[in-house]
Amino acid sequence: MLDGAFRISAGKDHSLALCGSKVMGWGNSKEGQLGLPIKKNYYNPQELNVYPCDFIWAGEKYSIFSTKKGIYGTGLNSDYQLGLGHENIVQVPKKLAIEDEIVYITGGKYVVAGTENR
Fold first, then answer.
1. CA angle 20, 16, 6 (to 5 degrees)
2. What is the span of the domain harbouring residue 19?
């Protein structure tokens, strides 16, 4: 089910695995953190619709995905964690307004992204 997984990231109560260029996710998605259409607990890994993906980050109750088309986020956004200008839950991955090349992404309750342009 997680054949070829080379990166795993664990949030507060959900996890992500990068398997080649596809992303698998499982756990709590009641705040949309897995980007799946139904808000519930997923007890088995589910393939997420974010590919080709080259980096994943599971935050407290959100997820970040890096693709060739940009950086995407999904999940809890009640304190503007995803930087989208609103505090609504993001149910499906939404492109974040980051224009610079990302060097690293980290976070816990909030997202921190470092760019080459300081």
1. 35
2. 5-115
End-to-end CA distance of the chain: 40
pTM for the complete prediction? Answer: 0.84
pLDDT tens column, 86-100: 889 888 898 887 666
* Cα separation values, 19 from 24, 54, 67, 113, Å: 7, 10, 14, 23
Angle at 41 between CA 38 and CA 45, to 5 degrees: 90
Q: What is the CATH number of the domain that holds 97?
A: 2.130.10.30
Q: Among residues 7, 58, 71, 49, which one has the least CA distance to residue 31?
A: 58
Token digits for 91? 């149910």
